[in-house]
Amino acid sequence: MSEFNGITGFKGWSAKLKSLLEEAKNIARQDDLDERLKMCDRLTDFILESRPDTPEIKELDRIANETATALLEQSINKRLMAIIARTGEHKRLTKEFETQAKENQANAESIRLKSIIQTVDSATAMINSAKELKDSLKENAGDKKVAALVDETVRAIEILRSRIGKLL
Amino acid sequence: MNKAIEILRSKGSYNFQEQHISNCNWSIKRRTVQAMFLMLVVIATGCTSLPNVGPFADATHQLKAAVAQSGSTVSDELRYTEGGKEAAEQLVEAWKARNQAFEAIAAYSDSLEAIVSSGNQGAQAAGELADSIQEFAEATGIGIPGSPAAIQVANDSIKLLVKYIAITRAAKSLEEAMVKAQPAVEQIVKLIVDDLEDIDGIFRAANKLIEKDFKISYATRISYREVLEDFVFQKVNIVDANDAVLKRVAQVNELLDSTNSWYSEYQQGLEKIQKRLRVGRALIKTARASVQQWVTAHKQVVNALKNRRPVSTTSLLEAAVEIQYLIKRVREL
Q1: Where are the domains of chain B?
Q2: B317, B55 in Cβ contact below 8 A?
């Protein structure tokens, strides 16, 4: 059952609009969006239901429309202002995150470099030890076989060292 | 020790001098003890891997997209309202700061991933070197004196120690960075949750304005159709009606049928407006819930680092999938 059933003539529609505007005034004093949306629906229904389309009734429709628009625009503007008011704080925090991100990237690079340098140093030490070992070997067949293996291994470690070094 | 010498001798790789072996004896024992000690240190700390922050970084990027899409969806809705262009531009301008904030947050989460990756990369490089040392020892049979088991222990210990150093350094850096950022993370989340609540309100109000104006644009036609409907469905008693009345009803029915084409357009138009509201609000709601999950996940990673526990990212991943789906739907509208 619509709240507009049985309303006829300008007087009837005018009285109905008057009561709707009273309610709208109370709703406008609060910030309850659900209530505003409901009132907008009722004012829209008023416009759709009011008849006949005489200039007087059309004037009532215009008032109902403006009231519904004002109720919602007020709500939009209030929220928009709240968003704008928080913008400064967003900018401050953005800078904080940017600084932290740069610091983290620098730390990451430092960890990466330190680990790589450490590994390259260890590889260098390993190569030196292996070369020392090779120098200490004798000329017999067994030692020559080992010396060849040492050379092969040193070459492998050098390749690895150079590959890791390229990460620097 | 003697057993080790026998094994190496049997391989025929090197002719051990007894004196050399005797000199090495204490050194090998000491090295083995050292290696085992290092292993114990590593095991005692329990830090053998870094938390996987990849899902956290992915979720941050999804969140950035959701926040940006929420802002543009609402500013578009405002633009559709009569006289809403100025408000739409104000929102676009204000929302830029949110998009920049999430750019910075995404860069921050990427930088956390970079720390983890640098720790893992260092550990990998150390592992590769240790493997080469192992190969060297195996190839020569003399590279590292001692039994194969002792060589293995020493080598694994070196590998673990270097890996431990790289990972510990990364874990410490990660923990410090995240603990330091936690207050800013909490502040920005509070701000963005308030923002999303406000744009949800703007969106609902703007959508209602559009719906109202759309309905009013059909007001005269709707009134006409309702008069016809009233006549057909309420005011005519078909049983008692005479031919003239029935003829009149048939004429009104024809008139009513002639309204169907625009009435169908009207219903489709209304459905489109309402669908936009449903999908847009779902995106904003999901973005809001995801922001809250994101701050919880950040805190969980910090706690995981402190307590050396694994990080659960299931809820974050689910939220990321939902965001992707909703952004796709909003863009399709």
Answers
A1: 2-332
A2: yes
CA nearest neighbour of B281 among B197, B190, B188, B192: B197
Whether the CB-CB separation of A25 and A57 falls below 8 Å is answered with no
User: Could you give the CA distance from residue A9 to residue A17 in angstroms, rounded to a whole number?
Assistant: 12
Looking at residue A73, its pLDDT comes to 96
For residues A144 and B38, the model is more confident at A144
Question: Chain A partners of B108 at a C-beta cutoff of 8 Å?
Answer: 97, 100-101, 104
How far apart CA A125 and CA A151 sit, in angstroms, is: 15
Contact partners, residue B202, CB within 8 Å, separation at least 6: A75, A76, A79, A80, B74, B77, B78, B91
Note whether A137 contacts B: Cβ–Cβ < 8 A. no
Helices of type H across chain B? 2-11, 18-45, 54-80, 85-140, 148-217, 219-233, 243-258, 260-307, 314-332
Alpha-carbon distance of B154 to B29, in angstroms, equals 11
Q: Which of B78, B200, B286 is nearest to A34 (CA)?
A: B200
Residue B92 is encoded by which pair of tokens? Answer: 């676009």
Three-state secondary structure of A70-128:
HHHHHHHHHHHHHHHHHHHHHHHHHHHHHHHHHHHHHHHHHHHHHHHHHHHHHHHHHHH
pLDDT cut 70: percent of chain B above it: 68
User: Whole-angstrom Cα distance, residue B224 to residue B74?
Assistant: 34
Helices (H), A3-54: 9-29, 33-49
CA Rg value for chain B: 36
Candidates A27, A73, A99, A112: best to mutate against B (most CBs of B within 10 A) is A112
pTM as predicted: 0.76
- Separation in Å, CA of B97 to nearest CA in chain A: 6
Residue B25 has pLDDT above 50, yes or no: no
**Is 70 exceeded by the pLDDT of residue B20?**
no
What integer is the mean pLDDT of B72-94?
A: 95
For A115, which of B126, B219, B220 is closest by C-beta distance?
A: B126
DSSP designation for B141:
S
Q: Do A101 and B123 touch (CB under 8 A)?
A: no
Give the model confidence (pLDDT) of B176-203 as tens digits.
Answer: 999 999 999 999 999 999 999 999 999 9
- A164 to chain B: which residues are within 8 Å by CB? 125, 128-129
Mean pLDDT of B24-46: 44
